[in-house]
Design goal:
- The complex is a heterodimer of chains A (115) and B (110).
- With 115 residues, chain A is an all-beta fold.
- In chain A, 0% of the residues lie in helices and 53% in strands.
- Chain A is built from no helices and eleven strands.
- In chain A, strand 7 (67-73) and strand 8 (76-81) form a beta hairpin.
- Chain A starts with a strand and ends with a strand.
- Chain B has strands at residues 4-7, 10-14, 19-25, 31-37, 43-48, 52-56, 59-64, 69-74, 83-90, 99-100, 104-109.
- In chain B, a hairpin with a 5-residue loop joins strand 4 and strand 5 (43-48).
- The termini of chain B are far apart.
- The mean pLDDT of chain B is 95.
- The chains are: A mainly beta (115), B mainly beta (110).
- The interface between A and B is medium-sized, with 26 and 24 residues.
């Protein structure tokens, strides 16, 4: 299957700092990527849809100024958590498809801990 | 929006036992996938199965789209099968996000 690579896999940061998470499609181009968040023992919740060359679409309740998404190329989307607080601690995971109407593949995920 | 319900929420099996996990969805879907989330959080693609039946080793899945449910069968379970199994659906065609159920947490004990 297709490979979606996410980096870093784990990060610890201090409150008030910003953290950038990268999501790359390694062997295909992805005009659209999706960012999810997962709290412990819960399901994955969609945060936003990242569109190459245009603004991201955020789900209701997700602060676009806190979670900055940039999709500058067909193989890279980044999620920046700005002014992080302990409540932002979570597992963040990205997803992409090779072609329309095909299966989605997920990155390895990033476990963010804000202290 | 669409509702995705998985059952049972938790399941404990003796190694070697068989099990069936169920996924019900409230509206027609264009895509349905089953995933296994390992202890490190990685989502492993098990099946892409908007309809019909597929088998891969000890795992098989069936989706009856007209009746809005899918089943995941695990036979001769092993301790490495432990983890959370998610069903996720896509309601529109094209490239739209998956909506996840709450998952079934499986523990296989030796």
């Amino acid at each position: 299957g297709a490979v979606v690579s996410q980096h870093p896999s784990r990060v610890i940061c201090k409150s008030g700092t910003s953290v950038k998470i990268e999501c790359r499609s390694l062997d295909f181009q992805a005009t659209t990527m999706f960012w999810y968040r997962q709290f412990p023992k819960q399901s994955l919740m969609l945060m936003a849809t990242s569109n190459e060359g245009s603004k991201a679409t955020y789900e209701q309740g997700v602060e676009k100024d806190k979670f900055l998404i940039n999709h500058a190329s067909l193989t890279l989307s980044t999620l920046t958590v700005t002014s992080a607080h302990p409540e932002d601690s979570s597992f963040y995971i990205c997803s992409a498809r090779v072609l329309l109407n095909t299966e989605a593949f997920f990155g390895q995920g990033t476990r963010l801990t804000v202290v | 929006g669409i509702q995705v319900e998985q059952s049972p929420p938790d399941l404990i099996l003796q190694e070697g036992a068989n099990s069936t996990l169920r996924c019900n969805f409230s509206d027609s879907v264009n895509n349905l996938q089953w995933f296994h989330q390992n202890p490190w959080g990685q989502l492993i693609n098990l099946f892409y199965i908007p309809s019909g039946t597929k088998q891969n080793g000890r795992l098989s899945a069936t989706t009856v789209a007209t009746e809005r449910y899918s089943l995941l069968y695990i036979s001769s379970s092993q301790t490495t099968d432990s983890g959370v199994y998610f069903c996720a659906v896509e309601t529109d065609s094209g490239n739209t996000p998956l909506v996840f159920g709450k998952g079934t947490r499986l523990s296989v004990i030796a």
